[in-house]
Amino acid sequence: MTGGRGDSSHPPDTPGGASPSCAYGDAHHAGEDAEHEIPDPDSLNRRSSERLDVTWLVDCETDDTFLYASIANISEMGIFVRTTQPLSIGTRLTLRFSPPGTDGSYVLEGTVQWINEVRPLHDNPNPGMGIRFVDLTPDDRERIVDTIRTIAYIRDAPVRSN
Description:
By secondary structure, this protein is mostly beta strands.
């Protein structure tokens, strides 16, 4: 399957499988000190649900902000939104997205759990924000899980040769 295991309360894997330079979920990437945290090996395994790498468009809206961005990965717990303008940790927002090749769209509530800010003159291949879904109905959670499983199944399906 593409992507790691996890939810969007944790930073995404960096391209090529390298580990990010900050502790997953602990530093929140908000201040200068967070940039220098050393990952705790146990924290890398705290992911609780399967994460699927995707490239889907998403609209992120708060009372006073509208951000048009892209989802880099999704799990039943949340998403990672790739953006150079992440919102503040704790910000509650409405997410609107329609996965390609699926029926229907999603309008879900989320909260920014952590951010990975753009750091000029530093290697930072994944600027953005981890958003945890909040107030999901059982039907919404089931739809998300079904979407993830469907896409994972299609990606992992064996290629037939004629």
